[in-house]
Specification:
Radius of gyration: 19 Å
Strand order of the largest sheet: 4-3-5
Helix content: 55-70%
Number of domains: 1
Distance between the termini: 41 Å
Structural class: mainly alpha
Strand content: 5-15%
Number of strands: 5
Shape: globular
Length: about 270
């Protein structure tokens, strides 16, 4: 066995040892369901394998803050802030949508250690954090959100909707990842890339994301599996472009923006 392969296997094993307890804690706290915990372990393992603790710290900061914010909003909802609580336990699909690009970059960095992937990785995590913070904190806004496309008032929880509180939270979420980034990373590039990815997420959610009408209960939903046995038909948006797909595209775009900004910084320097 070559030295590189042995080192890679060791980093994967060490990453699993670090990620599994954190994912288990998230499962016990209700932040993840069983599939989400397994997916989080895989993401955390690949992230550590690719970049060590320098990469893991921003991811842990994102996951921990997102879990706390989701828990806080769930408590407010159960206390009567809103009539219908949202699902709080994240599924494997949701974990993959927010952390899949970061995990793939970790795997790529592990296989090609000379290729610089730190800044794109941080951009992807910053976009996931910015979007999550905007969603969770914006959901507590006393004012009704407005559609990013039309400017009209829409119900809380509608994809593509914005509030002032949610926008501030978006910047704060991306800023947290930038703050936890390695000292050598261009923090402004990470912040801008994260906010760009979150804004793209909002734009796609307001324009191209698929929405479905349930033929039984008449509800307009974003996921065909909405807890009702009735059949659904697509009313708007592109087929297959679900909220999870939008999240994945947003993190991918943020990684690309972060890489482009880092390249411009190097040329300017």
């Amino acid at each position: 066995m070559s030295a590189h392969r042995a080192r890679s296997l060791f980093r994967l094993f060490a990453g699993a040892l670090l990620a599994a307890p954190i994912a288990h804690l998230g499962y016990r706290r209700g932040a993840l369901d069983r599939g989400g915990a397994l997916a989080s372990t895989a993401v955390g393992m690949l992230v550590f394998a690719g970049g060590g603790l320098a990469w893991s710290l921003p991811m842990i900061g994102f996951f921990g803050s997102a879990s706390i914010l989701t828990r806080m909003r769930s408590i407010r909802q159960r206390a009567g802030y809103r009539a219908k609580p949202d699902q709080t336990a994240r599924t494997a699909r949701q974990v993959a949508a927010n952390g899949g690009v970061a995990a793939l970059l970790g795997l790529f960095q592990l296989c090609a250690p000379r290729t610089p992937c730190t800044v794109p990785y941080l951009g992807a995590v910053a976009a996931a954090a910015a979007d999550t913070w905007a969603t969770e904190v914006g959901g507590l806004s006393p004012g009704q959100p407005r559609s990013f496309r039309t400017g009209r008032h829409v119900p809380h929880g509608t994809s593509g909707a914005v509030t002032l509180l949610g926008t501030v939270a978006m910047v704060a979420g991306a800023g947290l990842v930038a703050l936890l980034a390695p000292r050598t990373a261009p923090r402004w590039s990470v912040l801008l890339a994260g906010c760009t990815g979150a804004l793209l997420d909002t734009l796609l959610g307001a324009t191209l994301q698929a929405r479905y009408r349930c033929e039984r209960c008449g509800c307009l939903v974003e996921d065909p599996k909405h807890g009702c046995p009735g059949r659904v038909r697509r009313e708007s948006g592109l087929p297959g472009l679900t909220n999870d797909a939008v999240n994945a595209l947003a993190t991918l775009s943020a990684a690309a923006v972060a890489a482009a900004l880092a390249r411009l910084n190097r040329r300017a320097g």
